[in-house]
Amino acid sequence: MHFTSEQRLDEGVLEREFTLGEIPGFLWTPASASASAPAPLILLGHPTLGLGKMYPRLVARARHAAADGFATATIELPGSGDRPRLAVVDQARTDLRRALQAGEPVGDEIIDALILPLVDQAVPEWQSALDALLSLPEVGGPVGYSGGVISIGIRLAVVEPRIAAAGLFAGSFVPRAMFEEARQVTIPLHVLLQWDDEGNDRQAALDLFDAFGSEEKCLNANMGGHTGVPQSAGDAAAQFFTRHLK
Question: Which residues on neighbouring strands pair with residue 234, listed in sequence order?
């Protein structure tokens, strides 16, 4: 991990840009974080729009987390931003748009091609980032994962034992194979669902929630579309991480 820039934000939050090999990312740490009092870490997931477009939302989430004493970090996803494109995923996006414009059902083969290559590459990269982040004296465990492509969160929850709790956003296509992985998830979960999300199959989201094997899992469902998440939902997610990571 190589830090490329840093700046102080409001309330003393330290924002540092870094590269992990060729992968760019951000780390935000609260003013209270130190070698003698390392801050618990939350990994900030995000959709495949690129860190540049997602930055305002990510830094807002980071500031809220810092107010609760958490460090947060994120990395650019495969095929996003300035990273090399994933041809199979780009083709799947084209096929997806064609199906939606034609009013046709989105087939499993499109969903698999859209999501599974992304999960297969992104999860090891998140784990490498976690190795580097936890080597910093001011950052410690336990670790949480929040938001982003839900299938990435599912895979991380299964294969990464350092993640103690996850807050997941129901709002992206999920391959059928991920339902079997969901049954293997045992960590506490907080799942956010927008009831009228125009891009989400509500019943599929409910079926996925039912599939999770966690003994403690909470579904926070709110009326409204994809961008209509109420502040109370963010507050509930923050309380969830405070309970499980502190």
Answer: none
